[in-house]
Amino acid sequence: MINDLKKDGETRMQKSLESLEQGFAKVRTGRAHPSMLNSVMVPYYGSDVPLNQVASVGLDDSRTLLVQPFEKNMVSAVDKAIRESDLGLNPISADVIRVPLPALTEETRRDMQKLARSEAENAKVAIRNIRRDVLGDIKDLLKEKEISEDDERRAGDDIQKLTDKYVAEVDKRLADKEAELMQV
């Protein structure tokens, strides 16, 4: 019973790390990366779909993304969707769409760092909330006399160690992202 709760907690903490990585993908560094456009939604036959379902996204060079819509009539819709996204990008359209990334200024880098720290803090809060939930479930088992107080204490220590491990992993990934942001 306790082991199931621990496994569930660890699975949920792992998902928090995956969510953090998705959040970090939105934080723009100086280099182009196809995942930057993952959040862009394009209108396609009456419904919004992710960009990668209507176009292939690749690299033209280290500072330029190359977007090739699967259908020629989608070029203007994809262009408009990229412009209207909150990424601050200005695509250039022809048969394919080139998305040059402007060089990051020191101020922009600082703003991106703040955004990365915010994403990391959200992940830490999520991990701590998972810890709280699992500890609450363990306390419920203790109240129902399904486990002993020693089991409860040991499980609490294990959950805390797990939480510390994942919070340290968030800090490590944040440090990596900040170093990547500050590279010129």
Tell me about this structure.
It comes from Acinetobacter marinus. This is Ribosome-recycling factor. Keywords: Cytoplasm, Protein biosynthesis. One of its GO terms (biological process) is cytoplasmic translational termination. It is found in: Cytoplasm. There is one protein chain. By secondary structure, this protein is an alpha+beta fold. It folds into 2 domains: 103 residues, Ribosome-recycling factor (Topoisomerase I, Chain A, domain 4); 67 residues, Gyrase A, domain 2. It contains 4 helices and 6 strands, in the order H-E-E-E-E-H-E-E-H-H. A 4-stranded antiparallel beta sheet has the order 3-4-6-5, with helices on one face. Strands 1-2 form a two-stranded antiparallel sheet. A hairpin with a 2-residue loop joins strand 1 and strand 2. Helix 1 packs antiparallel against helix 3, helix 1 packs parallel to helix 4 and helix 3 packs antiparallel against helix 4. The longest helix has 38 residues. It is elongated and about 70 Å long. The model has no long low-confidence stretch (mean pLDDT 88).
